[in-house]
Amino acid sequence: MPAEKATAIVLRTIDFSETSLVVTLYTREFGKVGALAKGAKRLKGPFESALDLLAVCRIVFLRKSSESLDLVTEAKLVRRFRPPGRDLAGLYGGYYVAELLSGLTHDYEASPELFDLADQTLAELATGKAVGRRVARFELSLLRLLGQLPSLERCGECGVAVEPSGRVHFGHLSGGVLCTRCRDGKTHVASISANVLRAMSQLADRDDRRWRRLEIDARTGGQLRGVMNHYMAHVLGKKPRVQAYLKWTT
Ligand SMILES: [Zn+2]
Fold this sequence. Notes:
The chain has helices at residues 88-104, 112-125, 131-145, 180-183, 194-204, 218-236, and strands at residues 3-15, 21-27, 31-37, 56-62, 70-79, 167-171, 176-178, 189-193. The protein is α+β, with helices and mostly antiparallel strands. It folds into 2 domains: 3-79, CATH 2.40.50.140; 130-151 and 162-245, no CATH class.
């Protein structure tokens, strides 16, 4: 049973016994890992209460070869997730990041890029600033890394360029915008403003600077939130539990 070291984000903790936890972790080195942490709830010992929801830790774990859970033997806290004061937006944003990572990644499929995205997103959500765009940036970057980014410039069905002016058809089941011809007869089609589409393009951009300068008014932000809610529910196969609490905040 080899001992492995990893940097991990705690996605979920479930009480297993008076002193132990079952945890779901998203690690930079191995992707998602489910593990038992014996004695993790003791204040002293090899865990130092590090296995806290959305905390970033350095862990040592034993990888089991069979169907049984891996075993975390040590965890050192790098950073806790503690958005300031009574502002719940950042907190819900963090829960949402955990829910999406948990639901859309597979055990032992590592993506350091996705880990870094989540790590950076949580660090920024913890400041409580620009939560709305930070959450949307995470969703669209996550979709890009998973190869599930909706088509924003060309019709998701036939590939013809779609002019981003006025209102644009967005097919949730067609994976993006639709031309007028392909729109006919489709269900789950939203009519979105070109402003929302432009904001989505910039939020999905590989460059990590453009989206930060983006001006998004409350109306566009609210509509963007609506489109993303619907699309993410479709990708996840169910409505994320935290989604109802996500609000557009600039
Ligand atoms: Zn088309």
